Amino acid sequence: MPRQFAAPAARTAIILAGLAALAACGSKQERPAADLAASRVTTIGVNSYLWRASLETLSFMPLLQTDSNGGVIVTDWYANPTAPNERMKLTVSILDQDLRADALRVAASRQVSQGGTWVDAPVQAATVQKLEEIILSKARDLRRSAIGG
Hints:
Blueprint: H1 8-23, H2 48-57, E1 63-67, E2 72-75, E3 86-94, E4 104-114, E5 117-121, H3 125-148
Antiparallel strand pairs: 1-2, 2-3, 3-4, 4-5
Helix pairs in contact: 2-3
């Protein structure tokens, strides 16, 4: 049985599409070797040390949303068993691929129970600052561990 070939116009279109895809690859530039300990990590959309440290720090809370490309972690309401009339909800945003203090933002919401109804209450600024410090410390420790092997 003879082989059937695509019509010349279709074959030309396929070849042009292939050439366009190859041209989009750009020039041949050497990429630097991967460095596990680099502060900039590009396998996900944000710094992986900050991401992992945030997840580890918030591991005791139920998670509603995690987006490693956008760098957002949203928790559900969490009530500490020792203070059941108070609950917290957190949003952690990682804003950069670099491991830097200004690449991390924590936002917290707090509610207290009044007469069986949850009412919004203020969050102390020190609470948010402390959470950011814990996450940053843990991220730096993760980076140090990667350097040490």
